[in-house]
Amino acid sequence: MDDLIKVYGASWCPDCRRAKRFLGDQRISFEWHDIEVDPDGVRTVQERNEGNDIIPTIIFPDGSHLSEPSNEELAEKLGLERTAMMHVYDLIIIGGGPAGLTTSIYAARENLQTLVIDSKGLGGQAGVTERLDNYPGFPEGIGGAVRERDAEFTEFFRAEYPGLVRTLYLVTRDREQARDIAQEAFIQLFARWWRISHYERPEAWVRRVGIRMAVRASKREQIRPRLERELDFATFPNPVDLDVLRAIRELPSSQRAAVALFYLEDRPVSEVAEILACSEVTAKVHLHRARKRLAELLGEKALIEETEDVP
Questions:
Q1: What is the pLDDT of residue 163?
Q2: Which of 7, 51, 137, 256 lies 20 to 30 angstroms, CA to CA, from 148?
Q3: Burial letters for 7-27: b for 16+ Cβ neighbours within 10 Å, e otherwise?
């Protein structure tokens, strides 16, 4: 079985040019057959289309074919990711070139849920650059085209992510938490892909990381009820506002931590950022979102207006 996609068409055909451009934009290798100069190509097209000359006719390595497909049909057949895995993101980046990818990596390291959107293959000009120095996650630089390594990681992610989520779900018994931990494990893998991709079983590495994170999360969940029962309200400001405490429990963990450090421990933003291992900008974002959400939960209009004055 040939591992290369074969595209049968003619140079004058606009749909053929569109299909070739789409495959090229996605950096998918294919073999072009111009049926005007290739008699065997004409026969292949007719055999696939009940005697009709329908172009482009695209034959895939698995033996299947598409005749005059739309870009949407091509994307579906190729298994390209076209829908986001989550409904809400902290940051959406339009454009998957070097700047967009670099931004997404650093944002993910700050625990921001990040989505990169691009109409073409990720990497932009970096995809055809022979060498890049100082690229995040590749301290020794990258020799050869970046697109090959990006494509290798993307293929690995698509193959292993669903299985890792299933495994982590058995540990955490929480689907959303399993997905979050799996994504974090793959973020750590991507930062080290230049090295771990050469391991005999890189899938074992990402599972080991993910399972360790899931076990730690499960242990924290197991002891949380006991700690909450033993919680001494005297440690909170007096008098204790139970409505506020209940509202704080509804916040994401990063925002709860920021609120506790900034408001209860009276620490400056710089120390909050240092303790949370994030930038001061990210710490301010956590506080801003926490105050806005608390205002919504408590129904306090004044506090909503106050969120514009984030520290």
A1: 86
A2: 7
A3: bbbbeebeebeebbebbeebb
Tokens 């090229």 found at: 24
**Under 8 Å between Cβ of 260 and 250:** no
Label residues 194-209 b or e (16+ Cβ within 10 Å = b): bebeeeeebeebbbeb
pTM of the model: 0.42
Q: Please check the confidence at residue 157 and state whether its pLDDT lies above 70.
A: yes
Residue 234's pLDDT band (boundaries 50, 70, 90)? very low
Q: Mean pLDDT over all residues of the chain?
A: 78
Amino acid at 199: Y
Residue spans per domain, the chain: 5-78, 91-219, 233-309
- Whether residue 98 is preceded by a cis peptide bond, meaning omega within 30 degrees of 0, is no
Gap between the Cα atoms of 215 and 227, Å rounded? 18
User: Which sign, positive or negative, has the C-alpha torsion 228, 232, 237, 240?
Assistant: positive
Class of domain 5-78: alpha beta
Orientation of helix 175-191 relative to helix 202-229, angle to 10°? 130
Same fold, 5-78 and 233-309: no
> Tens digits of per-residue pLDDT, 93-120?
888 777 787 787 778 767 778 888 877 6
As beta bridge partners, residue 93 has: 116
Contacts of 220 (CB under 8 A, 6+ apart): none
- Structure confidence by residue, pLDDT tens digits, 195-205: 888 888 888 89
Give the confidence band of 241 by pLDDT, cuts at 50, 70, 90.
Answer: low
